[in-house]
Amino acid sequence: MSVAFRRDSDEEVLEPKFEMPIAPGPNLVTARGLRLLGEKVIEVEAAVAAATDDGARDELKRTLRYWHTRQTTAELAPVPAEGLIGIGSRVTVRMNKAERVIHIVGGDEADPAAGLIGFQAPLPQALIGAEVGERVEFNGVADAIEILAIEHQGD
């Protein structure tokens, strides 16, 4: 067999590992989100220290670089003005004849199943700056969402 068709090792065909993607724009977080970022960094640092396999350790270091970047670029979102929706607001809305409560948070803190929606998502973007009683456009539908209540979370 010709040397040109022989492979010396599997290392030659491994796909390159890219850094984890970072969302564009500012890394605005709530006070809770800032605390969670710190906890995540500590958790991953401990996992890196405990890793015995080189491949697993390299993957954990990649994850740690992501969380370090998110932690160092985090900016505490300003507290919204009284009566206005902003990052950190817990909002009760009526949409499609159903009431829904969402909490607008930073991107890394988002968990849509738990009602924690990142501020960059379309729904929070439609709500930010609105106040109780106001109806806002969403998905091209005028008055699609009615703001029923706003709470500003301290944490």
UniProtKB/TrEMBL annotation:
Q: Which residues form a coiled coil?
A: none
- Extract one GO molecular function annotation from the record: translation elongation factor activity
Kindly give the InterPro entries that the UniProt entry links to this protein: GreA/GreB_C_sf (IPR036953), Tscrpt_elong_fac_GreA/B_C (IPR001437), Tscrpt_elong_fac_GreA/B_fam (IPR023459)
One Pfam match, given by its short name, reads GreA_GreB
Which SUPFAM superfamilies does the annotation name?
A: FKBP-like (SSF54534)
Q: Does the keyword Zinc apply?
A: no
Q: So which domain of life are we looking at? A: Bacteria
Gene3D superfamilies xrefs: Transcription elongation factor, GreA/GreB, C-terminal domain (3.10.50.30)
Swiss-Prot/TrEMBL keywords: Elongation factor, Protein biosynthesis
Q: Where is the Transcription elongation factor GreA/GreB C-terminal domain?
A: 83-151
What name goes with this protein?
GreA/GreB family elongation factor
This protein's species is Sphingomonas qilianensis
